[in-house]
Amino acid sequence: xxxxxxxxxxxxxxxxxxxxxxxxxxxxxxxxxxxxxxxxxxxxxxxxxxxxxxxxxxxxxxxxxxxxxxxxxxxxxxxxxxxxxxxxxxxxxxxxxxxxxxxxxxxxxxxxxxxxxxxxxxxxxxxxx
Length: 129
Description:
InterPro entries: DUF938 (IPR010342), SAM-dependent_MTases_sf (IPR029063). By secondary structure, the chain is an alpha/beta fold. Helices cover about 30% and strands about 25% of the residues.
């Protein structure tokens, strides 16, 4: 299985999420793992903007990582992780899921599902309208 040629998958791309242009014009799906908490807010804004432009209707944008939810307190491990992130770069940090969803909605993406994952992470699925 590991040696098979996967013609339906492109290799990973080096993309500046916040950049004005991406090197692709279309994607069937976008997967971003541990991106938005270890990057400035401008990366989240860019990710949503570009996903809204290049995904077809119904296509998913899948995010994985830690989030704040509905004003609930973070788990102790995520409090420590958030503090560590902000010490490394004040523009980094665990994001509010509601704020991320609001930006996504403004770019034509609708929050479709949220799955609890191990280690206080979430898988969040948006779909293009």
